[in-house]
Amino acid sequence: MARVLSRRTLLGSLALGAACAAAGLVGCSDGDGGAVSAEPAATNPLAGKLGGKLVLRTSCSETLVNAAVSAFTEETGVAVRIVSSSDGDLLSWYGGDSAEGAGSPLEPAPDVVWGADPSWYAGSEALLEEYISGENAAMREGCRSVGGRITPVTRDVAVIAVGEGAGDGVEVTGYEALLDERVVGSVAMEDPSTSARGLAHLEGIVSGLSGQSADAPWEYARDLLAGGALVSARDVLDAPEREERAVALTSEQRLMQARLLESPAPDSVYPREGSCVTCECTAIVAGCANLRQARAWIDFVTGKACQERLAAEAFARPARSDVAEPDGLPDVEDPTVPDRAGLLALWARVLDGTWEPSEVAPEEASSAR
């Protein structure tokens, strides 16, 4: 079930309310999770601004969303209603504005969706409006429009967050180190079937270990689960802080944002087997009520000014080729699109215990000869 996105900031709820009113943002939280406004009021065009309203359904972090939406409203005069979602539910909604009739007032039909990599949109292209940003030519390799409907906005990297007490004497440098008996029971990861971060790590494990054999990544996943690794339906980044688990498979962006907020943050490890790089994308919903505003959103978030702001305020790697990376980040490969359907089919078999190795072990092959 989606919920109106909480919009807590370091300045506190009073400053937040004033900022929301000034910027035209809607769907803000009163600090207790209650919605201040159930429906955005359209703004009047001022000084040549577009005005109107937009409903954004997103699975992105609050830090990233706040940075983009506040700038978009300031630039265009568009009032934005923000509804949060998981990656898995990003393209599932029930809205009072939909053709099917009334729905929950907290879940209006979105005009745009934002979050997850292109694999999460596969098979749902009929739900999306065809539109290519006017900034498409300025995008990096692997960050240009996908199928004319899906628009990458930022890049993210799968990293391992290592907190204090993560296995005495064990240096965590990659995935294989997590199988050490002193570490494996302290690992938390997000469910790849509902989380783009979880899927990115599964892609990284498969890409990094498949050179050993086709079965190696899935034997690893089986052993990780058997060792007591936690698979969570929620964000696991704060697991080390809550002292539930010392190691979390998360994303670079989430970890860096925690540091920006001056929260205690674990160390980041880029797996030596390779870090999976993906894009967080946005798209217009076909038949949406506010098409002009939706197109303006796509053009805005791919523009240079917004990309620079997201890098500076949300520590997000830009999709544009003419915007520098946030300071201190290592070089990474171009983004990839995971084979979501294939990965999840095998992951499900590992989870239910029906997966079995498909290859003949080397020693068995030798004895057969």
Automatic annotation (TrEMBL):
InterPro entries cross-referenced by the UniProt entry: TAT_signal
Organism: Thermophilibacter provencensis
Alphabetical list of Gene3D superfamilies matching this protein: Periplasmic binding protein-like II
Domain of life, per lineage: Bacteria
Residue ranges that the Swiss-Prot or TrEMBL entry lists as coiled coil: none
Lineage: Bacteria, Bacillati, Actinomycetota, Coriobacteriia, Coriobacteriales
The keyword Signal is assigned to this record: yes
Protein name according to UniProt: Extracellular solute-binding protein
GO biological process assignments: thiamine transport
Keywords: Signal
One Pfam family per UniProt: SBP_bac_6
Signal peptide stretch: 1-21
UniProt key word Cell cycle: no
